Amino acid sequence: MVEKIPFFIGEEGKRLFGIIQKPEGEGKFPLVIFSHGFTGSHLEPHFIFRRAADALCENGIVSVRFDFFGSGNSDGEFEEMTLDTELADLERIYNYVLSLPYVAKGRIGFLGFSMGGVITAMFSGKHPEIPCAVCLWAPAILNKEIFVFQREKMNKDFDKRGLLDIGGLYISEKFYKSVVQENSYEYLKRYMGPVRIIHGTSDEAVPFSHSEMVAMERGYELITIEGAGHTFNNRSEVDQLIKSTTDFFVSWLK
């Protein structure tokens, strides 16, 4: 039986929401921290984060899924988010899980989807001694190129408040500047542990070619899902994604 434990951490107005999924039994378990994508949440499309957490739990691995500040059930507004706030959020979550008595502190992995891959890469480079394994789903790891291209395609500018409407949500000029000035790939290069990238060949949001280039340059393992889009939109693609993710973390954390 899977135990699901919702939690909030932080002071009022700055709280982060998350869910722990823990296998039954006593002792210390390895753990994976999930980081969601741009405008995403601790569930993600088709509940793929929850489904991946279920699969890990079945294999004796604890998971923590959370909402970044300004997203999902966490406090804050989306336009208050920057790369720095999201990196600080992931650091807060990591420090929180260290307090859990059933977590094997030397066996912690990290999973990042899309923009969450940027934050996971930055965390891994800033703290290269912490992750035992890093898995990235369709990571926006060449973040500057992606966001410059998307803004040019929108052909919009920031308003007098320094905000830009993207599909019903505002992003701030401060966020945009942070995402085109930082290079998450350069951060990730400092991490010398195992990295698996899983990416669909028909991704129109984050080009598959970016993952190909990064994997070739660094020798990372690249798992290709033929025909899959950015959010892995059919059952076969999701099954491949989750199996590959689970196999990777079982091999490095168990």
Automatic annotation (TrEMBL):
Annotated Peptidase S9 prolyl oligopeptidase catalytic domain residues: 52-254
Family matches, as PANTHER family: ESTERASE ESTD (PTHR43265:SF1)
Native organism taxonomy: Bacteria, Thermotogati, Thermotogota, Thermotogae, Kosmotogales
InterPro entries, alphabetized: AB_hydrolase_Est10, AB_hydrolase_fold, Peptidase_S9_cat
GO MF assignments: carboxylic ester hydrolase activity; serine-type peptidase activity
UniProt name for this protein: Peptidase S9 prolyl oligopeptidase catalytic domain-containing protein
Coiled coil: none
Biological process terms in GO annotation: proteolysis
